[in-house]
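wait is this the right file?? whatever heres the structure
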């Protein structure tokens, strides 16, 4: 039986230069189901997950359940090493990663064999997104944070990648920021609207 991972956000608030970005945000998420965080652009979704991951500090409020937890993330920008191949970008995330497993997941998400070893600067935006997603999935983590992870993917590729994500959550808590109203259904996720 997998261990429960549960985070509780209570009355979280954050302002920049006196302008409120988050005001008294509260929710609970656990690893029984993914959670999609939805809101219009500029509503503070990225700020919220940055605070949860410890990359920013809230002005007030609290988060429990993250103590000692390891995060892996897919950011809005891919944050890949441009000169390394997709394979090496994934492999460096975890030096213990099995090379056959890395290769299999990259192929499972729709990359062609010849693309796996090309420098990522030569890959399309969608190919880069898939490499970033595989890297996050193979990282040794308790909580996955995906910020608009599927942008730029066509419908057929999206189906493939969503299935690959579902098969590789492996008992972790998955938080997904998205504008896509259909994504919670695809992922079997709960929804929190900011």
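ok assuming it is, sequence goes like this
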């Amino acid at each position: 039986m997998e261990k429960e991972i549960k985070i509780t956000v209570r009355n979280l608030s954050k302002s920049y230069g006196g302008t409120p970005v988050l005001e008294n945000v509260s929710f609970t998420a656990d690893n029984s189901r993914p959670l999609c965080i939805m809101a219009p652009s500029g509503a503070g979704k990225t700020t919220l997950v940055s605070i949860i991951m410890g990359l920013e500090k809230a002005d007030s409020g609290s988060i429990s359940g993250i103590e000692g937890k390891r995060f892996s993330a897919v950011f809005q920008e891919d944050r890949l090493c441009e000169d390394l191949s997709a394979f090496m970008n994934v492999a460096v995330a975890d030096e213990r990663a099995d090379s056959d497993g890395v290769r299999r997941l990259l192929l499972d998400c729709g990359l062609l064999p010849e693309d796996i070893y090309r420098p990522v600067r030569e890959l399309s935006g969608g190919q880069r997104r898939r490499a970033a997603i595989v890297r996050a999935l193979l990282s040794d983590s308790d909580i996955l944070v995906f910020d608009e992870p599927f942008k730029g993917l066509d419908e057929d590729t999206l189906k493939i990648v969503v299935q690959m994500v579902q098969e590789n959550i492996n008992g972790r808590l998955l938080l997904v920021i998205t504008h896509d109203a259909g994504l919670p259904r695809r992922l079997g996720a709960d929804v929190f609207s900011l």
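The chain has a mean pLDDT of 92. so i think its the right one actually
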